[in-house]
Amino acid sequence: SHSFALEWPWILGSRDCTAFTPTDYSQNSTGEQITTAEITPCPRAIPGEKARIDNVTYLLLHEAARSQLSSGVTVLLIPSLYSLVFLLGLPSNGLALWVLATRTEKLTSTIFLMNLAVADLLLISVLPFKIFYYFLGNNWPFGEGLCRVTTAFFYGNMYCSVLLLTCISVDRYLAVVHPFFSRSFRTPAFAAWTCAAVWLCAAGITLPLTLQQQSYPLYRADITLCHDVLPRQEDDGYYFYYFICLITCVFLVPLAVMLFSYCSVLQALLGSGKRYAHSIKLTALVLVTLMAFYTPSNVLLLIHYSSYQCKLYGSLYISYMVSLAISTCNSCADPFVYYYVSEDFREKVRSTFFNRSKTPSLQTSKETLPQKSSKESLV
């Protein structure tokens, strides 16, 4: 085994922001060359320094940083949350997609909801890899290619869901607040083209993740990390700009649009009186769900990559990873907030499995809107 001495003049959480040069470790005891970059002040994530040994690039971590990777939260709580999301989200989204695709009329809202179910299913499909990764103690045994694909699919489909939820909120806003103005262009064909644009956008925003190396072996640990810990130079440069743009363009802006849309819908429904109390509750539920699941992880990610405060020496890692796991719970919540809350949808499911009479139409929570008459469906 190689002897590799490191002396770090700071510990995780230190407020000393002065740059430093670590003890000379350009050679180990066997004379092999080890190259590392100078450590920059005030890292915004778990510090990871590159070291090339026997033509293999390793990541070097302070012992305090390694303890976060092996903590009970990381290797037990986080994969348990992902397992719960997988077990609940796979059947609920799969059934919802099947009912929407085979048992409902292809309306504007139906197109958006089908694509949302697909995005949630694709996100859920990569969770088994992350579950094994964390249960194995942050060890990625599936290779660099699959690490890149899993990382891209994870973030891509998560933010694709955000964009589709934004489309749904705007669709409902137009249906409630501007029903006559939007009638001419709120068509299934327009919804299909909008969804196609969303998927292209999701593919584009995750392309940078597939172009950078995502997995690195951890020195003296016999494990390979996947995306969770990256070289400090890339974290301060490439990923700093990438995630700042990602958060701004596909979270903060969509969140502002959703808040405006749903607040406008709530205002319109409240002005209509108690007749639409159920729709008001559903709209409020959708808004609360979005804020509860997506805001914590994105706020922490924004701080993680943009804060120059000296106290953030990787101390947000566990908090961010937990909030990221919680954000995937939205994939479990979507079917119940958007589909199963509807009595018509539940009747469709019952009629499918128990051969009961089919209902003539299907409304989801997004279609339970103020009508000109009680029999008219405004979609």
TrEMBL record:
Record-annotated disulphide pairs: C147-C226
Key words of the record: Blood coagulation, Cell membrane, Disulfide bond, G-protein coupled receptor, Glycoprotein, Hemostasis, Membrane, Receptor, Signal, Transducer, Transmembrane, Transmembrane helix
SUPFAM superfamilies on file: Family A G protein-coupled receptor-like
Family matches, as Pfam families: 7tm_1
InterPro entries: GPCR_Rhodpsn, GPCR_Rhodpsn_7TM, Prot_act_rcpt_4, Protea_act_rcpt
UniProt keyword Nucleotide-binding present: no
One record GO biological process: positive regulation of Rho protein signal transduction
Subcellular location: Cell membrane
Superkingdom to which the source organism belongs: Eukaryota
GO cellular component, one term: plasma membrane
Residue ranges constituting the G-protein coupled receptors family 1 profile domain according to the UniProt record: 92-338
One Gene Ontology MF term: protease binding
Main location: membrane
Gene3D superfamilies for the chain: Rhodopsin 7-helix transmembrane proteins
Database matches in PROSITE patterns: G_PROTEIN_RECEP_F1_1 (PS00237), G_PROTEIN_RECEP_F1_2 (PS50262)
Transmembrane segments: 76-100, 112-136, 156-177, 189-211, 239-270, 282-305, 317-341
Membrane topology of this protein: Multi-pass membrane protein
Family: Belongs to the G-protein coupled receptor 1 family.
General function of this protein: Receptor for activated thrombin or trypsin coupled to G proteins that stimulate phosphoinositide hydrolysis. May play a role in platelets activation.
Protein name: Proteinase-activated receptor 4
Organism (species): Coturnix japonica
